[in-house]
Structures are given as structure tokens and as C-alpha cells.
Amino acid sequence: xxxxxxxxxxxxxxxxxxxxxxxxxxxxxxxxxxxxxxxxxxxxxxxxxxxxxxxxxxxxxxxxxxxxxxxxxxxxxxxxxxxxxxxxxxxxxxxxxxxxxxxxxxxxxxxxxxxxxxxxxxxxxxxxxxxxxxxxxxxxxxxxxxxxxxxxxxxxxxxxxxxxxxxxxxxxxxxxxxxxxxxxxxxxxxxxxxxxxxxxxxxxxxxxxxxxxxxxxxxxxxxxxxxxxxxxxxxxxxxxxxxxxxxxxxxxxxxxxxxxxxxxxxxxxxxxxxxxxxxxxxxxxxxxxxxxxxxxxxxxxxxxxxxxxxxxxxxxxxxxxxxxxxxxxxxxxxxxxxxxxxxxxxxxxx
Length: 350
Hints:
Blueprint: H1 2-23, E1 27-31, E2 35-37, E3 41-48, E4 58-61, E5 75-79, E6 82-90, E7 97-100, E8 103-106, E9 111-114, E10 117-122, E11 132-137, E12 139-149, E13 154-164, E14 177-187, E15 190-200, E16 205-212, E17 217-224, H2 243-266, H3 269-286, E18 291-294, E19 299-301, E20 310-313, E21 318-326, E22 329-333, E23 339-343
Parallel strand pairs: 2-10, 11-16
Antiparallel strand pairs: 1-3, 3-6, 4-8, 5-6, 7-10, 8-9, 12-13, 13-15, 14-15, 16-17, 18-21, 19-20, 21-22, 22-23
Helix pairs in contact: 2-3
């Protein structure tokens, strides 16, 4: 009996020592969400006790894991002898669970490990919303709106958006065409985005619906497009009406159908040859072209025109996905889902 009591005391002392050690551990998660939404940007905060600024710390998550911080350099907040380091992650997964990988915190003297953590991933219910932009944010502001003539029927709209803890790179407004990201800048929780799209000139406003994480509800931004058109320096920006491309495609389709009918009626092999040639040309002209190599320093334009604004330049020779072609321009998808037009002369030469 006495042996059993002594053994029980030893176990209790070990448990108590473990609890005290865990409580006094130099590093721990001070904030880790239990649930997040799919594609949500969320913070994770590490508490460092007895912080010594003269002995810098390094934070490395398990490189085997596909889940990594958006920016490996954490935001630091010092409060007396304690320091808080915040990193931001994105729930970019189709699974119902997200695993924050094991974290190594180290300096010149020793290494400390924080074990992996599981977070539930939820889908935002959009049953009552048919124009959700895909953006999830703590808040969102429209800093500027610019409307330029695009062609005889359409306008080019450029929005500058600013938000916190937001996946602005996933934005997709309904009822717009040929949209893309001109630039994106992320610093900690704050992100600024320049987003452009083409919409009919007669449209007076556009709706931007995002999910507000603070209010836990959808929020509508009604963006007015009236009296925001630049008629002076940007008037040369407008290319010729791209609707001609659609007309040309329809003419080809109708012509092919006519030759197919003639083939069925006359059974003349000549009509078969002509039909095959026209179909081959149609597929070649409008089928997605895969990828293309772009030269270092190539300019990426907002529009496929000589007078278009340049959104950025390539920093190295790279392969990019082709979206479409127009005249002597090719629309490509560059880094961070940024899309734009490059001149064909900037495509790599063999």
C-alpha cells in the first residue's frame, strides 16, 4: 500500500514538473486560430519570454510541409522582457484541415521546437450571395478609381484596393471581362492591390462583395464609375474594338458549316479538304497556346497597345502561361497571378 502511494506521489510530481516547465517554456504560441476559412489570410503569433535583442532569433518551419508563411520574416512587437513575433499564413487548401508545421526557433546557442498544430478549414456559405468576389478580409477600402476609354463600347477600370489580413490576389468581380492584377504589395497584415478590368461604358457602378472577418458577414462596396473618366492624356490608350475578333471567329465557323453542308450534299473531296484546313486554322488561332519564354527586362503592359501604361518589368528570363494573343501582343500570367501584355518582340529567340 505504501509502495503504491509513493509511486502515485512520484507520478504527480512528474506531472506537476511538466506543467511548470510548459508554463515557463521560453517559447510558445500566444495566438493560433482554431478555425479558418478556405483561402483566408490569418496570423500566428509566437511569444518569446526573456527576450534578448542582442541575440537574434531565427524562425524556420519544416521545409517539407507545403504550408509556409507568406513572408518568412515575422513582425516583431516588444513588451518589456517579452516579445511577440507574428507570421501570416494562407489557408490555400481543399482539405478540411490545415497543419501548421513544426517550428524551429534557434540562435547561436540552442534550438527550441514548437510542435505542429492542426486548424479546421471551413467553407464560407455563399448560398444567399451570387456576386461574392472571393475576398476575405478584416476590412477593405477602395483608395482610388480610374476609368479610361477602352474601345467604342467598353471602359478600362483600375481600382486601388487596401485591406488587412486579405487574400486580394483572389479577387474576381462578376460581369467583367479581361481582368487582371497590375501590382500587389503585402507588408505584414496590410496589402495593397491595383486591379483592372473591362466593363461596358454604359455601366454606372460596380459591386464588390467581400467577407468581413470582424463582422462575420458579407459587406458590399458599391463603386461608382460616373465622372471618373480621363479624357485627356489617356484617350490614346483605347485600341480598336476587339469585338471584331469575335465577328471573325463567327465568320470562320459559319464558313466551315457551309463547306460541311456542301460536302454532305455533293460528296466532293475538295470541300472536305477546305473544311479541314479552315478547322485547323480556327483551332490554331483560338486554342490556348500553353507557355512562352519571356526575356529579362521585358515590359508588361496593361493593354495591348503602344500607348498603354507599363505595370512592371520582368526581373529575369522566365516562362509564363499564355492567356491570349492580340495583334503583336501576348497576354501572359506572371508572378503572383499578375497578368498583362508583352510585345512579341520580347519573347525569347530560340
